[in-house]
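quick one
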Amino acid sequence: MRASSDANPVVDSRIAPAVAAVAEQGFAIVPDAIPLPLCRDLIAALERVEREHAHGFGQTSFEGNRTVRIYNLLRYGVPFTAVPAAEPVRTIAEQVLGEDLLLSSLSAITLAPGQVAQALHSDSQLISLRRPHPCLMLNAFWVLSEFTEANGATRFVPGSHKNPKPPKFGETYETVPAAAPAGSIILFDSQLWHGGGANCTSERRWAISNYYCAGWVRQQENPFLSLAPEAVRGFPPELQDLCGYKLYRGLYGHVEGQDPRTVLTGEPGRPNVWQETDAAQ
Ligand SMILES: O=C(O)CCC(=O)C(=O)O
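structure w/ 2-oxoglutaric acid:
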């Protein structure tokens, strides 16, 4: 586990129960994980980005015909760059996925009034591994405005991450809403059966999907093409690492034998496997 600048007993006491809950029921809700002023800043930034870039509703029922999805949020800089490495969630994710974890994607999912419930699915149903498998991808939903059953809180089938199959498309299953106050983070194993709820209120439901994967899993978004290298150079090192500007086990992700950080920043990289082997001879 990395040293956390927030390493105080209150924060640390949330980590082990959250890791255990993800393993046992497939999800965990961590309240008071995001300062409320940051929630407000993120909503204001999403409103601005949506307006300036003319982001509209999704084009498919899966994306949501009354849902605004904004992909690749790191492209828009601050305050979104504060999300992926924030504690205590980053440490929880590291304990579930391993310390080499990566950011798989960072996107906004804003449910407008009238959005109907999304089909239940499992985020790892495209992965051709026999289920259940160890958790390889973990979503950390940043709850920016309160999640209620009425405004479309994500719905879960508790324990379904242990099911050998994903849900059947269009079938009805018993679900529970992940009701949570603003400032909470909802973590769930990508194998868990889940879906966005229906927004039956007159307010929007604001959330950011901060999705991590194990260090050897392919990321859902491609940060090497979707983020300009000059922008990534300005990111804090831990965020560069999460984007994939690091080697996995000293080898995977190299650029002609070099650490991608060296290529990105010109700074010397960490030794790779070959250098360690050379040093041992
Ligand atoms: O918006 C939600 O609550 C869930 C969205 C979701 O699961 C997805 O799009 O994969």
